[in-house]
Specification:
about 425 residues, alpha+beta, 2 domains, about 55% helix, elongated
Amino acid sequence: MMNWPIILNIAKTHLITKIKQTSTAALGVTFGIGSYITLVCFMTGLNAMLDDLILNQTPHIHIYNEIEPSKKQPISLYQELENSFNVVHSIKPKLTQKKIHNALPIINYLEQQEEVIGALPQVKTQIFYIAGTIELGGNITGIQSLDEAKFFNLNDYLVNGSAKDLEITENGILLGIGIAKKMALKIGDRIQVKPVTGEVFPLKIVGFYQSGITDLDNIQSFANIKTVQRLLGKANNYITDINVKLNDIRLATPIAQQVERQFGLKAIDIKTANAQFETGTSVRNLITYAVSITLLIVAGFGIYNILNMLIYEKMNDIAILKATGFSGKDVQAIFMSQAMIIGLVGGVLGLLIGFGLAQLISTIPFQTEALPTIKTYPINLDPLFFVIGFSFAMLSTFLAGYLPSKKARKIDPVQIIRGQ
């Protein structure tokens, strides 16, 4: 049976007497794990920011009336031509309203479903922004501003003002930053807008909206849903779009298909709407984890080489230990203990350095028009990364110590002493 106090005391003595080699081995672990933590926290933070840029503004399911040709043309109603081959040219879209029929009961139905967090109505229409004799084309969306801020992070895209300002201001408007710059407008000014068919309507600017997409910021604005309904001369039940937020984004596709079958509306799920973006996200994540794993593997080989050389420098000590009665298992345990101590110290220091560097990066100024509310570089301090880093430090030092110590276990002390 091993005497662990003696084994650990010998291991400690070896580490202290060869402090330079010990420090080198520990620093190899430290910088390897520290670099991994810094890289993975930074890269996944950036990836999450890019995902949020699109996903925060995209409903899990978007419901609306699609303008499309009728699937069945009048000629198909004649039974005598049922088995004939018919060709119809210049098919025009069927006459349909943008309004969703029975929108409010549909919203109530959706909100009662367990999978649905919220179903928000919207009224979208094209308008003209009037500046003197100039008319600039654009879009205005009527929203429930506080709910939009709660479920779709509207406040993250407001340079000035807030969703609450829009909620409490009658005939208020959140104006696209591009329009505001073109017309030299500021908070509190009034802007005249006119729908495609309608009269001029003055609105008070309560904030500026900036999505980071220039073409969108040059045309888009938001107002209270009742304001847009009055602008169009429509009743309170006039709804053109419904945006749905789910508990589980993976349910978006089947629920969207169910809505289309049940209500005869067009329902686009987030995966269909952002198929190309999801592909880019998958590629970025793959690159991030591939680089991180490669970094850990390279660090592991460095740790192995350092510990391997450390053990071979201890050949005389191994011979003396065996000559004084220590068994091969005892010798192996001594050097395994050294490796694990180096892994423990180096791993803890690596986590601290990685955390410190990640925190330092999070203080570096970072400005992007895409996310105006973000002032510094995004960092993802996921505890799982630290668990993986520390686990790898212990595993790599275990393997790095096990292989050379297994050889040390079989060394014949007579040959070493005779060689001296």
